[in-house]
Design brief:
Strand content: under 5%
Structural class: mainly alpha
Number of helices: 7
Radius of gyration: 26 Å
Mean pLDDT: 80
Low-confidence stretches: 154-159
Order of helices and strands: HHHHHHH
């Protein structure tokens, strides 16, 4: 059973797209959203499978390697799996696939209040900018004698 599960985990981790590169990029804060999601999914999947081994710190089981025992205990710990699950549940996978950072985090007032506040502030600023664009166009038009219909005119090579 031990060999089967460890073999299964290693096989699935080797199939995960560029797992080592993804972990390195996460560490250096250069990971793309899709890489981040893939690494967290791989960690969650491996942790759940390794939990089936029921290895405990105090037990003397058939694992001879202390390093392997500690690695399995770390990867299959309840806190790692809970954090990975919580992290994945708060990420919008479609936005990650599209590279859309603005909608990546599924936020609520209770879970990520700073993201919610930042989105509200962004929307307010965007609305203010949109309202000012019309005003500036009118001012420029009056100052330089440009008619309003010019601003809605789209340029292409055929015209």
């Amino acid at each position: 059973m031990l060999e089967d599960i460890v073999s299964w985990v290693l096989t699935n981790l080797s199939r995960a797209p560029d797992l080592q590169r993804g972990v390195t990029r996460i560490f250096h804060c250069t990971a793309k959203p899709v890489e981040f999601v893939a690494v967290i999914q791989a960690i969650l999947s491996a942790g759940k499978q390794l939990q089936q081994l029921n290895i405990r710190e105090e037990e003397n089981n058939n694992l001879r390697s202390n390093l392997l025992r500690r690695l399995i205990l770390s990867a299959s710990s309840d806190s790692v799996i809970a954090n990975a699950t919580k992290m994945l549940s708060s990420l919008n996978k479609e936005s990650a696939d599209q590279g859309d950072l603005t909608n990546l985090i599924i936020a609520s007032e209770a879970q990520f209040p700073e993201v919610t506040r930042a989105r509200k502030a962004f929307r307010m600023e965007e609305e203010q900018l949109n309202s000012l664009i019309g005003l500036y166009r009118k001012r420029l038009g009056a100052e330089f004698g440009i008619h309003e219909c010019f601003w809605n005119y789209s340029f292409d090579r055929d015209r």
